[in-house]
Each structure stands twice: as C-alpha cells, then as structure tokens.
Give the backbone structure.
Amino acid sequence: MSALHRAFRRASPGLALAMALAAALSACTFVKMAPGADDVRVVGPGQLPAGCVRRGVVEVSVKNRLGPYERDEMRVRDELETLARNEAPGLSADTIQPEGPPADGAQRFQAYRCGALSPNPMAPPPGANRDAKPPAEAQTTPLKNE
C-alpha cells in the first residue's frame, strides 16, 4: 500500500464529514433581500393591474442541484423570486410577474412600474387617519371561562 493511499484512508472520515457539511450548507438559503426589494410586489399570471408600464425582463438563476441531489423546489422558487425582487429597483420597477415556472434553477420575470397601483400591503389604505384611535365601545371577551 502506498503512502498516499494510507494517508487518504486516514483522512477519509474527516473528508467525508467535510463533504457532508459542505452539502448541508449549500442547501441553505443564502439569498438575502436587498434594500428596496421589499417594496417590490410579485403578481401571478393574469393579475397585472391596468396602467402598469413594462420596464424590462429580469432573468435569475440559482443552483437547483447538488451533484445527484435535487434542492427543495420551494426553496429554489423562493430564492429566484428574491433575486428578481432585488433586481427590479435597478429597472425602476415596483412589480414583477413570472413568465412561467422555474426550469433548471432559472426563471424569467417581467418587470413593471405600477406606481400607486402597487402599495405596500402593510400600509393603511389611502385617506386613512393614521392617528385615529379605535372606537371606545369596542369590547373584548375571553375565549373560555376560568
């Protein structure tokens, strides 16, 4: 047995552990939302409001396979959407719409500028009094008696 072969056999348990750790970490989501991307709305096919102006196309991709192993489909979709939302502000877009489902870890999105048509879903409706207090006659009741 050669010295190289003996060294490899001694290192094999550590090498296997390192490879398993690398595979586990590579399955984690590392795509983070960029500044301004949280204001970008994602709409499904056929849901684009009237009055939106097309700004361009965003094509994004992530690894959907790790060797023979497929990554979780929902995680891949989430990362693709996040990447597309990150790119939209660079096109002055505030709304994106997927052209179709992901294929081999890649997806294309149409980017639109809808302006006031795509408000922050957490914002109060237009004309709402932000300082208004809840009505005094509101009551709460316990769910069960103790």
Notes: Strands lie at 41-42, 53-61, 65-66, 69-70, 95-98, 106-113.
